[in-house]
UniProtKB/TrEMBL annotation:
GO cellular component, as recorded: cytoplasm
Gene3D superfamilies assigned: Bira Bifunctional Protein, Domain 2, Serine-tRNA synthetase, tRNA binding domain
Coiled coil, from the record: 33-93
Species this protein is from: Eubacterium ruminantium
Lineage of source species: Bacteria, Bacillati, Bacillota, Clostridia, Eubacteriales
Listed name of the protein: Serine--tRNA ligase
Length: 429
């Protein structure tokens, strides 16, 4: 969410930013919120004036009574009553106008970084760098669920009967591989100096609106019926929510955290053939990284964070590339975002396995996460998040890139301690 003062003083910049995000229907909201803000400030000014007058008139009443001027005292009392009635009207109206301002401000997108490429949607995202040599083997690579079935590692039919489409049972060595990847990612981030956290898997509505846009909430979140609770779509939500309303001491920054959680997503809409299986599902697990830092440090942390994901995937023998998200593909709270994509030798192309985002002070403003500087000044923190690894989608890339012609799957050396020393998973069927 933008600072209303910034919007008030820079409406043309805000409108141009909306154009860059191809959300022209929101342009009129800028003028609308400016008028509402003007009304809110006028109400506040009048209310403050009435309160000030009340103190002055109260002293006058005392003076009139001391002089025996009952008529003057009664006139003053009448004025106090009129002011009180008007003040009551203003105090009733002010929160209504404030709420209108807040709702509009929640829908106006954050100012994107100057370096972000301009484009309408993800088809115009820009490749930054490739890491590792993408290889297409001389044997056919089956669909990922077929690989898992030959390893006796998945049962989607039973999951469909139990929970419906978008769910799965992972079994045996594949289930163990899933857990091994998460454990390796946890230790990988701890070795980078991050603090490991297991957060709540449900959050209240005021945290939801603090960390994401309304459109994202509707697309993603499952609500618990009858309660003010939502299942998290990513642990970023509850991790950032932890600092809601907090005053963070500047000396403690940056806060570098890595969290494990299950994630729950609606995943609305139709999906293509390659997004079946365990690619786009309602329930999965993820290792995330979160950074809360000073504003001047956020871009440095942004570059460190996505590079950690690249490093992890390369340690597992998976070629990856980074894509910069264009303006139209950025969620409204984001200043800048990179996707990390893994190579699929089956599809002969890359697909998304993680996303790194710098949200500037947008989440901090919504949640009032402030920093107290050494000089006593207070300011809003910057927040960033990034996927370390999110199996089972990541398992698709892992299985395809480590598959042998006989159907066995190699276990990279760094993962073997988490697999009981196993060097290879072999077909069971």
């Amino acid at each position: 969410m933008l600072d209303i003062k910034f919007l008030r003083e820079n409406p043309d910049i805000v409108k141009e930013n909306i154009k860059k995000k191809f959300q022209d229907h929101k342009i009129p909201l800028v003028d609308e919120v400016i008028e509402l803000d003007k009304e809110a400030r006028a109400i506040q000014a009048e209310a403050d004036q009435l309160r000030s007058e009340k103190n002055v008139i109260s002293k006058q009443i005392g003076a009139f009574m001391a002089k025996g001027d009952k008529e003057g005292a009664e006139e003053a009392k009448k004025k106090v009553a009129e002011n009180a009635a008007r003040l009551a009207q203003l105090e009733e109206k002010k929160p209504i106008v404030d709420e209108k301002v807040r709702k509009i401000m929640l829908t106006i997108p954050n100012i994107i970084d100057d370096s972000v490429p301009i484009g309408k949607d993800d088809s115009e995202n820009v490749e930054v760098t490739k890491y590792g040599d993408p290889v297409v083997p001389d044997f056919e690579i089956p669909y990922h669920t077929d690989i898992m079935e030959k390893l006796a590692g998945i049962d989607m039919a039973a999951a469909g009967r139990v929970a419906g489409n978008g769910f799965y049972y992972l079994l045996g060595d594949v289930a163990r591989l899933h857990s091994a990847v998460l454990s390796y990612a946890r230790d990988f981030m701890i070795n980078k100096g991050f603090t490991y956290v297991i957060p709540p898997f449900m959050i209240r509505s005021d945290v939801v609106t603090g960390v994401m846009s309304f459109d994202e909430m509707d697309e993603m979140m499952y609500k618990i019926e009858g309660e003010d609770l939502f299942l998290i779509g990513t642990s970023e939500h509850s991790m950032i929510g932890r600092f809601k309303g907090e005053m963070v001491d500047e000396s403690s920054l940056p806060l570098t955290l890595t969290s494990y959680s299950p994630c729950f997503r609606k995943e609305k809409g139709a999906h293509g053939k390659e997004e079946r299986g365990v690619y786009r599902i309602h329930q999965f697990e993820k290792q995330e990284m979160i950074v809360i830092c000073k504003p001047e440090e956020s871009m440095d942390w942004f570059n460190k964070m996505w590079s950690y994901t690249v490093e992890l995937f390369r340690s597992l023998d998976i070629p990856v590339r980074t894509l910069e998200c264009c303006s139209g593909d950025l969620a409204d709270l984001k200043v800048k975002s990179f996707d990390v994509e893994a190579w699929s030798p089956r599809q002969k192309k890359y697909f998304e396995v993680g996303s790194c985002s710098n949200l500037g002070d947008a989440q901090a403003r919504r949640l009032q996460i402030r920093v107290k500087g050494e000089d006593g000044n207070k300011y809003l923190a910057h927040t960033l998040n990034n996927t370390v690894v999110a199996p089972p989608r990541m398992l698709i890339a892992f299985l395809e890139n480590n598959l042998n012609a006989d159907g066995s799957v190699n276990i990279p050396e760094v993962l073997r301690p988490y697999m009981g020393g196993l060097e290879k998973i072999v077909p069971k069927n």
